[in-house]
Write a structure and sequence with these properties.
By secondary structure, this protein is mainly α. The protein has a single domain, classed as Alpha Horseshoe (Serine Threonine Protein Phosphatase 5, Tetratricopeptide repeat). The protein is about 80% helix and about 0% strand. It contains six helices and no strands. The N and C termini lie far apart (about 30 Å).
Length: about 110
């Protein structure tokens, strides 16, 4: 990964922290375009969408992340939260159970 992509990613994090979510999303998308498997960028774009209430967008990004990291507890937890908040309780429960199956002490 290029240094400029890391710097751009860090800029996205700063924008998120400043609650400039639309700008953060644009930055994360640029980073992901250049680095499609950059875990942190995928996770943080999903988190940004979840934070802004755009749950279906968050779910889409989390599914992309989980395609290459299917047992990632943090991503599964965020996915479960998004699914729960959309009213998809069955799928949310599946996501939470998958975490606990792999990591019974997850908090």
């Amino acid at each position: 990964m290029k240094q400029k992509d890391i710097e751009l990613y860090n800029q996205g994090l700063r924008l998120f922290e400043l609650a400039q979510f639309d700008k953060a999303i644009k930055i994360f998308k640029k980073v992901i375009k250049a680095n499609p498997n950059f875990y942190q960028a995928l996770y943080n774009i999903a988190l940004t969408f979840q934070t802004t209430g755009k749950l279906n967008d968050a779910i889409g990004w989390l599914n992309k992340l989980l395609a290459s990291n299917p047992n990632d507890a943090e991503a599964l937890y965020l996915l479960g939260d998004c699914l729960f908040r959309t009213g998809d309780y069955v799928e949310a429960l599946k996501s939470y159970n998958k975490i606990l199956k792999k990591n019974p002490n997850f908090k």
